[in-house]
Fold these 2 entries.
Entry 1:
Amino acid sequence: MTSADFLFALLGAGALGAAILPRLVAGRPLSAPLVFLLCGAVLPLLPVPLPEIDPVGDRTWVEHLTEICVIVSLMGAGLALNRPFGRRRWSATWRLLGITMPLTVAATALLARGLLDWPPAAALLLAAVLVPTDPVLASEVRVGAPTDSEHDEDEVRFALTSEAGLNDGLAFPLVAAAMALAAAAGTGVSGSWVGHWLLVDLLYKCVVGVVGGLAVGALLGWLFFRVGRRTMRLSEHGEGFVALGATFLAYGLTEVAHGYGFLAVFVTACRLRSAERAHGYHTVMHDFVEQVERLLTAGLLLLLGAFLGQGILSELTWQGALVTLSLLFVIRPLTGWLAQLGSAAGPRERLVTAFFGIRGIGSLFYLSYALGPQTFHVPAEELWAVVAFTVLVSVVLHGVTASPVISRLDRLRLLRAKRDPATGPEPDEVEIANQRL
């Protein structure tokens, strides 16, 4: 048996597993990503020809494979959100982006600098790589398929999904800052790069990402729902793969204009929803994107598990492990809680939102992306060990706890809605979702 033969068999098993596992583990303290990760870790132990997985030496294909997975998941997240865009409606999102995100980066960078004794650029890179959240790896904590109601999303699922949709793109300026610092200062500290970073990497590229997403979303919204010729109106034909066309078009055009394509994809998806919010074609596109996303995620987690099984964690030090545990158990929960003080969410909802800062595929992309053109005066294997360990702990921790925790919140909302005199004994989905816990 050749490696190609085994790869075909593995791809087939992974595709079937991506279809079956979510249903098997639904409602249980287990997640499909965790199963895929464990299966991947077992692969190196099997007496079969398995190529060595080296994300350092094979950085380019790792970067592009994770890049595709991230942009597909961003399109799915944007299409799933029912709540119209707005300053007050999205207040939980702005809090998590404006308070939790910078505080998490600062605390993680300082911890990496102090515990690992890494240069400032490497410490900032680690913090920037680990700040994006990824509800793809725990589907229970993200919103479900799009519906025709604007108010049937509970605060926890909405906050985590919208946060992940935007902070995957907003991590780019932080990674760019780490790369610029490394290029300008090596192992020291220099401020010569700050002006260019503020004007280009932060301001220009973010604006182009948002404007590009709005423009592509508006154009596709017209083409999907309003174009005069019926044969050109894509919503009439129910072809879900069109969502991939929207994803790649928004991403590619924005990147050509030197903007942040991640931001553009999510904004495009949100703009498409607003073009005809109650149309059933959104569900068709979302379901197709979700299927592709599950396939890509399953494959990447199998590869990550195999990478772990081949010994990457041998480069992990106790200091690196402590940075990971501090991020997941202290920094993210604390900064997430602080950001929500005074918000509309109840105390239980704030606690759950703060805890589920899931790390995943986005972190793998950003690390492979940054290690291409720049050196950070830290062995790449050490950086990969800390990031891979963080994703591993997050998949296990959040995968095991997501289903029981979210199910508990759902039961409490239902019970409170039934006891609410304003809703009656048979509350609808909107009345249940609007209960604050």
Entry 2:
Amino acid sequence: MADLVVFGEDWGGLPSSTQHLIRHLLKKHRVIWINSIGMRSPGLNRKDMQRIIFKAKSMFGGAKKNSEDVSEGPSPIVLSPKVIPFHNLSFVRQFNKQQLVKHISEACREHGFEDIILWTSLPTAVDVVGALNEKASIYYCGDDFNALDGVDHSTVNPMERELADKVDLILVVSTELAEKLPGPSTVMFPHGVDYDLFASPCSHPGDFPRKGPVAGFYGSISEWLNVEMLTQAATALPGWQFVFVGTIKTDVGALQELPNVQFLGPKPHSKLPAYVQNWDVAMLPFCHNRQIEACNPLKLREYLASGTAIASTDFPAVRVYENEVTIQSHREPFSRTIQRAYEQKNEKEARQAVVRNESWESRAAQLEELIDHLANRESRFPERLTEN
């Protein structure tokens, strides 16, 4: 059974698609997880400085199990790499490669990793591909980095093209990404959902009103939310309660001034079903921009699994479920979209049915077949297998 070395975001917290998949693969595979090596150079601001301090503290902890991971089942060996987040400089890339290969190789020897499959969800890990005596390599592309804010596009885009040329398998989560990374090694691999978690009935969490209809959203409250549109909707529907769960990362002052709007802060992922199941309408109130055009939010399938009616702005990923989701039409006030979704409140079973067979467990079983194929073939890097 192949061992996995995985480059992703920091392990723990709200799980990404990579973490969902790896949690299931951990049942059969040993995993070394490399915490985020960054996608941009830090700036001279408070947020970046706090991030640098946090990463510096974690760098010197060595290989360990992550104490924040409280999920059931096995956990990965988590490494916090000693790297410099200036990937645009060639000498920094060379230094980072040496540090990463050294750190990961030591962990592999310590834990007896042998037949390694290298998995990266980050283009910035490109220089490590082929340097770990790995049996094969996978690029899991869950985002269009060309469209993401907070990414050094001039640096990351060439690294992604280089990575696509080097790896043995590319997994993409949407047709838009498949068109961006075409080729015989590219495989469509849509997101899954923790169906049982979100479909199992939960009691009311108790920290938002039970009176009147409720429209809710959970996730990062960032610049991709259309705050102006939401303010207009909440003003037009004074009898509704608007509830937001998540960390505030953008200016929501206009919403905070309204008496029927509540911000409840972030909640653990395991607690989210209790919120979405007890809303009358779950919202996907996004701006129209390049980032949203390329996005495929995990919460879309989670909302569907909960059975709650959904009101959404229009973007490609949601059109796949146009029969189950109420999508805002051109120039339609979002308040009307919410009301139309509310009229479909009782069609819970139809919404759940479309994602019942799209669990992360079933996605991981499909992934297992691909990994077995890679692990059982001749190595792509045979000359490296004899290096010391």
